[in-house]
């Protein structure tokens, strides 16, 4: 089941997986950029702006929404006060 957040946006609206594209890895919609690239680069210390400069086909709103949905999913919807 896809994670819901905000105005009913779901991860399936932002990422796709197709066996014919990048061997079925999840990619940002309308790109060939695997979602894992975002998390790997953030873990390596790159800023969001640097990632967006490096991967020009990424849409800032999509990337931020994926981060927010992932955080929401991993925290069970709870946020620290």
Describe the structure.
- With 81 residues, this protein is mainly alpha-helical.
- The protein has a single domain, classed as Arc Repressor Mutant, subunit A, CATH 1.10.10.10.
- Helix content is 43%, strand content 10%.
- The strands form 2 sheets. The protein has a two-stranded antiparallel ribbon with strand order 1-2.
- A hairpin with a 3-residue loop joins β1 and β2.
- It is globular and about 35 Å long.
- The chain starts with a strand and ends in a 7-residue tail after the last helix.
- The N terminus is likely disordered.
- It comes from Methylobacterium trifolii.
- Pfam families: DUF433.
Quick structural gist:
This protein has 81 residues and is mainly α.
Considering the chains and any ligands shown, give keywords for the structure.
81 residues; mainly alpha; two-stranded antiparallel ribbon; 4 helices; disordered N terminus
Outline the secondary-structure elements.
Layout: E1 4-5, E2 9-10, H1 11-14, E3 15-16, E4 27-28, H2 35-43, H3 48-54, H4 60-74
Antiparallel strand pairs: 1-2, 3-4
